[in-house]
Amino acid sequence: MSVESRFESVLEAICQDTEQEDVWLEMLSQLEFAGCRKIVKAVPFERVNTGVLQHIMEEASHAFLLRSLVRDREEGWATNPLTEAGWEYFQRLDHSVSVLEGSGYSYPVVAWVIERRVLELYPLYLKHTQRAGVRSIVTRILAQEKGHSESFGHGDFAPELRARAIETEAELWDAFVGRLEAWALGSVRLGASLPLSTNLQIG
Ligand SMILES: [Fe+2]
Ligand SMILES: [Fe+2]
After folding, report:
1. Is residue 174 situated within a structural domain?
2. Helix ranges restricted to H, the chain
């Protein structure tokens, strides 16, 4: 079965279970925050223009909107059963693709390759979620994600960099989907935690 079909099947299963969907939503919110923080850290002061500020603002608002669906305002985040899998996908992708870039300025290519995935993920989530509140928020987010993808020139990078970024992301995505399946379809349930891998710092 292709990774796309596996992902759609596991997402469909998650959307049948409110507790699991809450965990999924919270992990998405945490990843939107990680994306926002990546921009803040990666873009040097003299390159911060209105486009960069808009991107930071919109990614922060995605984290806020998704979080508002699942958690009380005052509560801080805790790791949930998907946090580590999501964080690992993001952090490894950031490190691996930044190395490929070579110039020390990896923001556009990392952001672009993630946006590619996001533009597949959110439409599939919209297709399967049965929650009207989620649908309304994810529709708003998706409209902005399309704008982000356009702002990176639809991936107009050197062909080799582009190809290797796509390949690296696909491998990490495959691993992420495997962990999603282990959690959602296996015996690991809410409140439990997947084993921690080494060298991963969350937060
Ligand atoms: Fe986003
Ligand atoms: Fe985005």
Report:
1. yes
2. 3-14, 18-42, 50-68, 83-101, 107-128, 132-151, 159-184
Distance 186 CA to ligand 2 centre (A): 31
Distance 187 CA to ligand 1 centre (A): 30
Q: What's the length of the chain?
A: 203
In a domain, 33, yes or no: yes
148 C-alpha to center of ligand 2: Å?
Answer: 5
Domain count, the chain: 1
Residue 165's domain spans which residues?
A: 3-184
Enter the pTM of the model. 0.90
Reply yes or no on whether the pLDDT at 191 is more than 70: no
Residue 187 CA to ligand 2 center (angstroms) comes to: 32
| pLDDT tens digit sequence for 171-182 | 999 999 999 999
CATH classification of the domain holding 175: 1.20.1260
Residues with CB under 5 A from ligand 2 (ion): 145, 148
Residue 173: inside a domain: yes
17-74 pLDDT, tens digit per residue, is 999 999 999 999 999 999 999 999 999 999 999 999 999 999 999 999 999 999 888 8
Measure 141 CA to ligand 1 centroid, in angstroms: 7
